[in-house]
Structure formats: structure tokens, C-alpha cells
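Entry 12.
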Amino acid sequence: MAKKGRAKNTKNKAKHSKLMNQKKTKLRDAKELHTKRIKAIIKKHQEESD
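Predicted 3D structure (C-alpha cells):
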């Protein structure tokens, strides 16, 4: 017999998905920032050596 009312685990799944998306976004942003800093350092070094 099927349950009546809300599905069993949707609230927890939604919360977990939200938190995982936040984590992925944070990691992606950190990686982007890191690459920008590296590129800036390389550019500055190349300008100094010229």
C-alpha cells in the first residue's frame, strides 16, 4: 500500500542538493580565482623581463 501525504525523503534530498551545489560553486570559484592570480603573476613577470 502506498504512503499518503508527503514523499518520504524529499526535504532532506533538497537540502543536500542545495549544500552540494554551494560546495561545487565555491570550489569552482576558488579554482577560477587561483588561475587568474597565476596568470597575473606570469604577466607581471613577463613585463619585468622585457
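Annotation: Helices lie at 10-49. The first helix runs from residue 10 to 49.
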